[in-house]
Amino acid sequence: MARSIKKGPFIDEHLAKKVAELNATRERRVVKTWSRRSTITPDMVGHTLAVHNGRKFIPVYVAENMVGHKLGEFAPTRIFKGHGGKKAETGAKVGGPPTAPGAAPAAAPGAAPAAAPRGGGPA
Fold it and tell me: Could you read off the pLDDT of 16-50 as tens digits, one per residue?
């Protein structure tokens, strides 16, 4: 369920103060924050916020299309390394004569010719 409109967006007070201070002085510096739960407001556009992901701070440059989202959405906490699978299928084939770049791959020795398309009617 979405947050009620009458409540307004949530933003931690300490973060709001820092952003307001940066806007007042027109200063451009990175602000470190642990507040992943804060909503991005139009005041933050153009600033770089270092959002903590549990291990390190991820620099997030706030663009106009990020307004309304949470800071934590832009600092992933998990690294996806891929599902398990056969390593041989993903690796390059070993052996065989090298081919010229752009050349068609040679057919396997002893391979059967390609089958003719099967039609339903007389030829």
Answer: 999 999 999 999 999 999 999 999 999 999 999 99
The answer to whether position 54 is within a domain reads yes
List the domain range (segments joined by +) for residue 44: 28-77
Task: Match 């770089």 to its residue by tokens.
Answer: 48
Quick one: which of 43, 48, 5, 51 has its CA closest to 30? 48
